[in-house]
Amino acid sequence: YKEKYKGYKKRYDEVSIILQGKLSSLQLQEERKTITFNIEIDNDTLICNSIELVKEALNDESARADYIKRILFEDDTVIQEYLNEKDKIKEKVEKSNIAHKHSSLLKELVNDPTFLEKLYLIMIKNFYDIGNIRAQTKLDGKILKNTSFGERCSIVISIIIAAGTNPILIDQPDDHLDGKFITENLVPLIKRQKHNRQIILITRDANIVIGGDAELINILEVKGKKTEITPSTIENSANREKYIWILDGGTEAFKKREQKYNID
Predict the structure, then answer these.
(1) How far apart are CA 220 and CA 217, in angstroms?
(2) How far apart (Å, rounded) are the C-alpha atoms in residues 174 and 190?
(3) Distance CA 201, CA 249 (A)
(4) In angstroms, how far is the first alpha carbon of the chain from the final one?
(5) C-alpha span between 19 and 199 (Å, rounded)
(6) Could you give the dihedral angle defined by the CA atoms of residues 80, 84, 85 and 91, in that order, rounded to the nearest 10 degrees?
(7) CA 107, CA 90: separation in Å to the nearest integer?
(8) Which residues neighbour 251 within 8 Å (Cβ) at sequence distance 6 or greater?
(9) How far apart are CA 157 and CA 172, in angstroms?
(10) Which residue of 55, 80, 95, 151 is most buried, as measured by CB atoms within 10 A?
(11) pTM of the model as a whole
């Protein structure tokens, strides 16, 4: 379990460093905020399985999981101590004066070397089991779920585009994103990443289509009971009227692009 964990963490760190590099240019709000990735262990599984082992060994229906948890795991910091030295488990139980009956029973258990070894190995197994690893994305040290809705949308869509090289299809990535973030962050990211993967976007945002230098524009038109698809390009002015009205800010986006590339 330890070897698998080390291999997983090594690969995770390699990938996260690459991904952080790709996202380092993002401007989130006025100040520069750093996106980081790390892994955390789900200690709940370790605690639950350890308590189950104790209850099974006690073979006493009156044994309460909450008391066992208080005796063994009053806080998460003790877990690392246990993993470093199994005798710390015994030491912790022997010092306990919580729920006298439960403490006495646990003291008997941990004084049995075989049981102590089992409990220790259960903890080791669950701590290093890669199935119990949680990947965490943080913005300036704050867990992603605790950031604002707009920040979460900005970060998630950026990660989706930046991570991987396989083809990707995204339906309206501009939803819930402000225009400034789209222009200053999303469009440059799309332009960089389209050299590494095929990116297919459904959008009404002209900055994404035109500013992102789309190589192919599929114009969808409903005719009768069917949807007709007309393939086109930015340079094909013959089809421009068919889609420019769909794109928010279409005319202005074309003007900006033409100025940028000195197109008359």
Answers:
(1) 9
(2) 12
(3) 17
(4) 64
(5) 17
(6) -20
(7) 7
(8) 244
(9) 10
(10) 151
(11) 0.73
